[in-house]
User: Fold this.
Amino acid sequence: MLVSLMNRILNAILMPAPRPLPVRPPPEFPEAQVAYQSDGPCGYVVFAHRGTRFSLYYELAGGDALAVIDEPTVEAWKKHTGLPVDAREPLLRFIGATVAYDQTANHQGRYVLTDAAITICH
Assistant:
């Protein structure tokens, strides 16, 4: 019994944790992609889907926050993105989840969505 317990403990330590699945885009935007244009401590997160493309400015942050991504207000969304306002929240959630997955150690980051920004955290 002790040998069985030791084997389970060793397997748990030596076996890598399962890798999280990549983030899936919202169903309305099945071909959505996120890219990055970095310029030192700031840059742009670029969203692209078919003929639509827009950029969101980001700056690196400190503490638990890794980066803060500016987002267009509800009023400015259509003008900035060319997309309907009802697409705003699902796309911002997709962008936040994608950046947290792509840009954090072991894909273990998280994001916090507010009315003004997406904060990427450890």
Notes: Confidence is low (pLDDT under 50) at residues 15-20. The CA atoms of residues 78 and 85 lie 6 Å apart. The chain has one domain: 32-121.
